[in-house]
Amino acid sequence: MMKKLLSLLLLAAATAAVWIVLKPDRQGSGTLTVFCAAGLKKPVEEIALAYQKETGTEVRLQYGGTGTLLSQLKIAKQGDLFVAADDGALADAKKLGVTREEFQVAKQKPVLAVARGNPKHIDSLEALKKDEIKLALPNPEAASIGRVTKKLLGSEWDALAAKAAVMKPTVTEIAADLSLGAVDAAIVWDSTVPQFKELEAVTLPGLAKHEEFATATVLASCQQPAEALRFARYLTAPEKGAVIFQKHGFTAVPGDKWAMRPDLILYSGGVNRTAIEKLLQQFATREGITMTTVFNGCGILCATMKTMGDSSNPKFPDAYYACDICFVPPVAEQFPESVMLTEAEIVIAVPKGNTQNIRTLADLARPGLRVGLCNAEQSTLGFLTKSMLKSMNLWDSVSKNASSQVPTADFLVNQMRTGSLDAAVVYRINIHNDSVHFDAVPLPADKSKAVQPFAVRHDSPNKQMGRRLLGFLREHHESFEDAGFVWKGDTAPVKSTEIVLPDWLKQK
Predict the structure, then answer these.
(1) Helix or strand or coil: residue 467?
(2) Residue 382 to residues 1, 42, 121, 271, 428: CA-CA distances in angstroms?
(3) pLDDT (tens digit, 0 to 9) for every residue of the chain, 508 residues total?
(4) Torsion over CA: 442, 445, 446, 450 (sign)
(5) Residue 65 and residue 142 in contact, taking contact as beta carbons nearer than 8 Å
(6) Under 8 Å between Cβ of 373 and 402
(7) How far apart are CA 24 and CA 280, in angstroms?
(8) Which alpha helices (H) appear in 248-351, and where do they start and end?
(9) Largest Cα–Cα distance in the chain?
(10) Contact 280, 476 (CB under 8 A)
């Protein structure tokens, strides 16, 4: 099957692709308000200053314990971004309905902090319980590290809290107390310790394996999403924010390569255009990016990717929305995982009233009938149609009547409107909104369904943005249903190498 598809791709001739370049509405630089967990202050502050110098956009930072910030967000419902210190805080923000896009910025682990050299030999929870040891704990009602540690330690937390010398609302406050010698030990994030020269970390068995993500999320109250998303991209860019997080002792989670206005390249089968064109414009405007979208038959799209060589070519697409799963295996190396977004039915389109009384595919073989088919070497629909006809021993007889073989079904519909065709095999979607002029003749149910997968290139410099585009499309499934698709986008991703084609599509 793979060799067959590859040979078809190599034969695909160049044709008129539809290129669409989407540019966002112009938005001037303004001021961003960012609520940030106190433990992340040093790197975020430095990143914000660098961003302001580079872009001219002022970033106003408000720090506090994560719990305290969440309370403010719930009441005020203002601001552009929230930088949470842990997964639980992000989950709470989601429950409040105040979040949108998410950007993981760093990984953190809870540790025990002591004075450098550990002069009091504190190396266990039991040691913390000694009367002579002064312990500082983060308040679990206000600080993420406190809530996480309380959950991990269970009853041990209660014992430690009962003897704690001090309990404060932010991780930096208790680390500062320890640095000044006011206490002997404190439970903090591993990333907090390098920010204080006088401290060192002690790993405790009950905490060592646990890891949390610090995450920046755009707030639902944000009135300038393009600017907020640009700063979030800067926060995580490998050559920008991620370097600064690493410098301050954090384990950074690098995001996409930095560009002030990146260009996201999408290859899409022509059938998907009616459902996604407006959504792509909305996404480009929200993100403040340029989008280059190429709509064409999937055979041509795959052939184009093949001629580019490896994906290091800057014109290689970041994302690919195919017309059917059969055109994913040829590019599985670049797109190793797919999400099945939609399903489209293949039908025979006939003029309203069906005066030729066409009921089956066999009827398309009648002498003198002018039939429109898509090109099997250039398009998914053509490949599926030819395979379907061959499996029913109808290809030779029907193809003799094929007065037109084109890359996409839109051409066939236009030819039918002008009266140059008597029937055409198309997607029902192609005539979904034109019941005045066309009737649809259904085909065998087991062979007339095309499933459209969406995939993001594994080594794309805009991989996270591609995933956000997928999430955006999933949020707007009604657009696909209005266009006539059957929605399937709530399913789990599938490995491209594990896509199994039915036997009738494997025939030679």
Answers:
(1) helix
(2) 16, 58, 74, 12, 14
(3) 444 444 444 444 334 456 655 555 544 458 999 999 999 999 999 999 999 999 999 999 999 988 889 888 888 888 999 999 999 989 999 999 999 999 999 999 999 999 999 999 999 999 999 999 999 999 999 889 999 999 999 999 999 999 999 999 999 999 999 999 999 999 999 999 999 999 999 988 888 889 999 999 999 999 999 999 999 999 999 999 999 999 999 999 999 999 999 999 999 998 999 999 999 999 999 999 999 999 998 888 999 999 998 888 999 999 999 999 999 999 999 999 999 999 999 999 999 999 999 999 999 999 999 999 998 888 889 999 999 999 999 999 999 999 777 888 888 999 999 999 999 999 999 999 888 999 999 999 999 999 999 999 999 999 999 999 999 999 999 999 999 999 999 999 999 988 888 888 876 5
(4) positive
(5) yes
(6) yes
(7) 10
(8) 273-287, 298-307
(9) 101
(10) no
Q: Which residue has the tokens 């709530």?
A: 490
C-alpha–C-alpha distance, residues 480 and 483, integer Å? 5
Residue type, 494: V
Residue 508, token pair as written in the block: 């030679």
**Residues recorded for the chain:** 508
d(CA 470, CA 381): 23
pTM of the model: 0.88
- Please report, as a single letter, which amino acid is at residue 363: D
How far apart, in whole angstroms, are the C-alpha atoms of residue 333 and residue 341? 20
Beta bridge partners of 337: 495
Nearest to 437 by CA among 457, 416, 461: 416
Closest alpha carbon to 57 in 249, 176, 283, 226: 226
Neighbours of 502 (CB within 10 A): 11
Contact 185, 136 (CB under 8 A): yes
SS3 state at 12: coil
Question: Which regions of 27-80 does DSSP assign to beta strands (E)?
Answer: 31-37, 58-64
Q: How far apart are CA 153 and CA 130, in angstroms?
A: 17
